[in-house]
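User: Run a structure prediction on this.
Assistant: Running it now.
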Amino acid sequence: MSFSGNVKQELFLHISNARHCRLAELAALVVMSDDNEDTLAGKKIDKLASILKLDPVDEQGKLALKIVEKDGKLTIDRVLISKSCCKQAFIRGAFIARGSVTNPERGYHFEITCDNKELALLLIDIIKDFEVEAKLIERKKAYVVYIKDGSMIVDLLNVMGAHESLMDMENVRILKDVRNRVNRKVNCETANLNKTVNAAVKQIEDIQYIEKTKGLKYLPDGLRQIAEIRLEEPEMSLNDLGQKLTPPLGKSGVNHRLRKISEIAGELRRIN
């Protein structure tokens, strides 16, 4: 089963304790589902309707669920979702009916499709009450409420009551974060290593040029000593090179001498 399917299955099993929350969830399922009894939404409608002992399609049922029709489209009276817990139940029902969430291994995308704009804006307002920013896009003849921020999707899973799915997603997010940090560190270390290697290659080329054109005796004693060691130890770090000198020299001192050698090599190249 997909990650989205797992979330819906978990929410399907979630039954609110309070009657008003059950009504809110059932109302969301009724106004958003496609009346297919074989779907998970259809089964949840039957389950809640049985518990509440009402028929959501007759007038009494619609009255209890505060379902209203505007311009041929179904929506609900906001009085149904005046309580925070009822808003959570409404989002849960809407997601079971028309929602989906991408496998966090591939990316972060949560959406709920609505048949009309008024219902979509209502859903966005409800979600916003939980400090989650959802956006709206029109797709063909439908209105899609969506979220692309991973942390906000986690927050909304918590709001809906999908706690097991929330933990699964958090584990994936943690692993991805660790993986990204390791990759950044490796990339940084690789870049530094490449920089060090390129610098050493350039140093050796300069020393070899001086040796070929003038001989290393052309260099002052301090520079000649570091030049000879660099040729012998092309892969050695500046710190280790400094320890081979007499007297030993620190990294900055070694770097200074090698820069002087490069300057001398540059001057010889210009002359020749």
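Strands lie at 67-70, 73-76, 99-101, 110-114, 135-139, 142-147.
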